[in-house]
Amino acid sequence: MRYTAREVANIMGGKLYRLSGDEIITGISIDSRSIQKGDMFFGIRGERFDGATFAKEAVDKGAVCAVVPEYKKTENVPSILVDEPVMAMGRLAKNYLMSKLRAKVIGITGSVGKTTTKDLIHRLLSLKYSVSKTIKSYNGFIGLPFSILKAKEKDDFLVLEYGISRPYEMDYLVSIAEPSVAVLTRVGKSHLEFLHTEEEVAIEKSKLFKSLKMFDIAILNKKSPFLDFFEASLPKMVRVFYYETPKIIEMSMEGTIFKFEDEIYKTPLIGKHLVTNLTAAIITAKILGVPLKDIKEEVKNISPSPMRMEPISIGHLHILNDAYNANPESMKALIETVKEMGIKEDIIFVLGDMLELGPKAPIYHENIGRYLAENLQNATLFTYGKLAENYIKGAKKLHSKKHFDDLDELVEEILKREKGHVFIKASRGIELERIIEKLKERV
Fold this sequence. Notes:
The protein has helices spanning about 5-10, 55-60, 85-100, 115-125, 145-150, 170-175, 200-205, 205-210, 225-235, 270-285, 290-300, 330-340, 360-375, 390-395, 405-415, 435-440, and strands at about 5, 15, 25, 25-30, 40, 65-70, 80, 105-110, 130-135, 155-160, 180-185, 215-220, 240-245, 245-250, 255-260, 265, 310-315, 315-320, 345-350, 380-385, 400-405, 420-425.
């Protein structure tokens, strides 16, 4: 990135304050703690803090200037004054993508699997191309433009997640970055606080595919609910490809062997849902010209991302850490994975709250408890969180189950077991991975 302050102000519809306009901006930051020389700092208001209050600190650390609302300007702090920093960032990201980047955008949406699929597509495409991707899981109003502005001008592809939780959010994200390749993971029960039904979720997410142009590419999960919504949204002469859960030949804590499009693959990834994400990446890479032999070799070396079906051994315990996030679909996927492994005993599920499910959240938790009891009758269930006690209500058929309000007590209960396979999952806000650290401290 390389802009003058005047260029940036014009693009964002802002005004220069204590700037000549000739200053050179080579990067952006939204965190005053990680300022690099040449950065422009966006003072974004969050739930717990107002970034504008850190404008002076950012400039003192080397930022060229800060981007803040006019009514929050700070005396002697060089700034670009805008209506709203988040919207200003979106305008700049759109300009950067259209005027300075040569990369084609690959857009990924769905209720589950976006981040994993994004990481896998990025990894396989990187075998042949220069590729940037959404940073972490920054996929919304702030994250998507921020990720675009961090991309390299030489990139061939930019792999972006499009994450939404409210009506019309997809319209905004697409207005910033229209994809030439759109990938659907799976629609399910997530973000139901503001999008009240799965149907509303599907309608909103299908807008990504509606934005495709003639000869662009749509890659669809053949088994996703509401697939017809996405097919109906496609403009004429868009090229459509499908993928689905492949045939699983063998699955264990060491990985998975599966068959997809008449080819046998072996990967360290565990779980049908992760392997399905991998097939989406495989078909995307093949379509875009990555040689199959290179793909097959790379698949052998793909390790699980942290907290996404990540195997960990601690003393006598074999742990699968899937604590990055959770909703009903991904909870069922974890249960199905454990069932597929054929583990007969010493199965311990540690489940925390699934968040952002709206008023029916207790029912969804109860249903997951029932699903667990029906599929793995010999499992032990430990729960933690305000909503998690509802798992217990549904899991009436399980002989061994207990709810905990104290995480240390839960850890002590796990440690009483002489051995065990422990499966940990909850929404990100619960931070259930803390169990891992507590176990490591005590073993």
